[in-house]
């Protein structure tokens, strides 16, 4: 599937990550593993989505920021 609509692609990735994250959470595995599995399925390993290098860099940066935000939300202050 080749798409140039980056917002649609990010939406598909978020929904896929959320769905697989819920499945892994119900299996008592952390949701981050689900996000990684969804990334492998949608990534270049299965050739479902083909992107330009610039678009890929944008999506990787967005994804890393999202994962860091989720992990940071679970941190507890020590003081």
Q: How does the overall form come out from the CA principal axes?
A: globular
**How many distinct domains?**
1
Summing up helix and strand content along with how strands pair, one would put the structural category as mainly alpha
Please give the number of β-strands. 0
Q: Give the mean pLDDT.
A: 78
* Percent of sequence in beta strands: under 5%
Helix content: 55-70%
* Euclidean distance between termini CA atoms: 50 Å
> Which runs of at least 5 residues are low in confidence (pLDDT < 50)?
none
Annotation field: number of helices: 3
Characterize the main sheet: none
Radius of gyration based on Cα positions: 14 Å
List the helices and strands in order: HHH
Describe it:
By secondary structure, the chain is mainly alpha-helical. The protein has one domain (6-73). It has 3 helices and no strands. α1 (6-26) packs across α2. The chain is globular. The N and C termini lie far apart (50 Å).
Outline of the structure:
The chain has 79 residues and is mostly helical.
Primary descriptors:
about 80 residues; mainly alpha; 3 helices; about 70% helix; globular
Topology:
Layout: H1 6-26, H2 31-42, H3 53-73
Helix pairs in contact: 1-2
């Amino acid at each position: 599937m080749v798409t140039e609509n980056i917002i649609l692609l990010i939406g598909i990735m978020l929904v896929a990550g959320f769905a697989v994250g819920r499945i892994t959470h119900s299996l008592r595995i952390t949701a981050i593993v689900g996000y990684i599995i969804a990334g492998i399925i949608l990534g270049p390993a299965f050739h479902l989505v083909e992107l330009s290098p610039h678009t890929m860099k944008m999506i990787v940066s967005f994804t890393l920021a999202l994962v860091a935000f989720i992990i940071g939300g679970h941190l507890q202050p020590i003081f």
